From TrEMBL:
Top-rank taxon, per record: Eukaryota
Pfam families documented for this protein: ATP-synt_10, Peptidase_S28
Keyword Transport annotated: no
Official protein name in the record: Lysosomal Pro-X carboxypeptidase
Organism (species): Vitis vinifera (Grape)
Keyword flag Glycoprotein: yes
Signal sequence residues: 1-30
Positions of transmembrane segments: none
InterPro entries found in the cross-reference section: AB_hydrolase_fold, ATP10, Peptidase_S28, Ser_carbopepase_S28_SKS
UniProt keyword annotations, A-Z: Glycoprotein, Hydrolase, Protease, Signal
Record-stated family: Belongs to the peptidase S28 family.
Lineage of producing organism: Eukaryota, Viridiplantae, Streptophyta, Embryophyta, Tracheophyta
GO biological process: proteolysis
GO molecular-function terms, A-Z: serine-type exopeptidase activity
Amino acid sequence: MAMTYYSLSYSLQWLPFLIPTLILSCCVSAAQFNVPRLGPLSRGILRNPEPAAVSESFYKDLKTFFYAQTLDHFNYRPESYKTFRQRYVMNFKHWGGAKAGAPIFAYLGAEAPLDGDLVNIGFVNDNAARFNALLIYIEHRYYGKSIPFGSTKVALKNASTLGYFNSAQAIADYAAVLMHVKKRLHAQNSPVIVIGGSYGGMLASWFRLKYPHIALGALASSAPILYFDEIAPEIGYYSIVTKDFREASESCYRTIRRSWSEIDRIASKPNGLSILSKRFKTCAHLESSFELKDYLDSIYAEAAQYNEPPTYPVTVVCKGINGASKRTDTLGRIFHGLVAIAGKRSCYDTKEFNYPTETYLGWRWQKCSEMVLPIGHATNDTMFQPEPFNLNRFIKECNSLYSVSPRPHWVTTYYGGRTLLSLSTQGMVRPEDDIYSIYQVFEKSKDKFSKELKTVVCRISLLGYTSVTEERSTVVGHAEKDGGGDHQRFLTPDVMKVVLEEFMPQLGNKEAFEKGAGSAGSADEMNRGYFADMSEFKQHGGKIAMANKIIIPAMAAMKFPALEVNYSDGRSLKLPISSHGNEAGTSKLDIPKASLLCLSFRASSQAMIDSWSKPFFDAFSDSKNVQLYEVSFVDSWFLSLNPIKRLLLRIMKKSKPDGKSVLQRQIVYSFGDHYYFRKELKILNLLTGYRNLVLFPHFNRG
């Protein structure tokens, strides 16, 4: 994967913050381990050179603009109306245009300047060509060139100027920019999909919740939205770091686990810190054993957080540790691991992760205001020494820095915690080795998936988010062996198809959908769209066709097309039942003389299905010659993938056998593209339900 090189040297604009920050660091950082930051790109020890594959034409396609952004969106004091220049960058190369209603993919900047994301977040650019999308990248306030108050020095001066630096103001910025762009381009009919990774993924999720009239969907990668307020266990982050290392190598894991006590043992000796300084070739004399442990802690966490091809940093560290000679002691092996990941240097800077870079200073304020991330390693269940997150100590540290106390409960108050599930349907993909997977919404109530998707917040791992190459074009869910460990494969650009398939038909975006994600019959679907279905539905009071009052004669009856369905327990069945017996796992089924098949394509038709199936059930409950099936159709390509399909079936509504009745209401599901099935039955409107009385030998006669 290509990444931008981020130098550890800092520009002159940061020098005013250097001395006070280092003074505070010596007093504050020693209190507890450095809390890992978010962000889709590594900006620490895992540095890669500038990507050579980026052509000059790519940069020529990028157009930079500045928007006069309001300082304070939520107050009406005179100072609230001040403005600052907010940077956003657009790429029109693949856009199908406003007249075609082609989509807009909006990448939401996170806690860093936008420059690195333009080059390295290849996932967005890869999908723009597939869907004729306009790309817009919006920089987060207080980062890069989007600095209020005219300069960084003034903006970061104190809590008064920093008070406008929060997530709510940031997503309001994004809303203002997107509305401005749509108006300027006359693109009111172009759907917007907001995209972000890590903290940016959190912003994308929250944006969809707060501004549903602007964003049709959100794609949130590694978005730890359950990170807050003790919703998830504080050791979750380091548990997954430990899992990654243990899966890479058991001996590596054990060596790291032993090393902490060994560092403390040597540090307790006379001149122990001098010994450790020499053994680890530190650039400055160690002031405490904690300084070295915090440095190594950050290296292991970053290696796991950005454990992706082609290098797999976790494997690199473990190969260094395991590759030392047999006579090498524990700390010698740890040093070999450090050299393997950081390269051979004249010395190793233990303050490398704590220098006052732009991201460091900005994120430090965000952590001390609303982004209170309770990460700790509180037990012996990880490869790290126990060090619980101490909220009271954290509040004191932030008070010493800014004279402002953090608000640890505000994020869940303002955006919601687990209640996010009740506010919006969210489709998730959750690779187990993603470092933030424990803090993401991935559980679903059984009713959620049966509803028509209003939001797709697709959580993918940061792995595969930055760029997509041919060798990485495999769907998450299959494991591959590499370097002694199991690594999840990566999401293809097809994951974006989930979002577009769900929403484009509803907007009647014919050109964009046909060219980007069209499947068989997409032209017919686009000619109708959601609004055509709704108009027809209202016009006829929910009845889009007259019901037959008599049984259709056999000569005129339409043959019911074969349909493969699944029960919630995974068993498969082909409808209608034939004389050959076609249920998996059985030799032969009793052939029904009549079957009522109730078809539902959207949750909105469920009441209609019930109005047919219940009277039929009551009338024929004691009959052995009839069968009743309620079929729900799942058209999404993504949800039809076997791993997702199996998970979905487990939480779907199940048939409830009634021991008193011979006839049973059998609830089944059909996955995949049903265009030709619907075409044979002349089904166009998907908002209503359909009932079909099938008489042997499976002719649809009512």
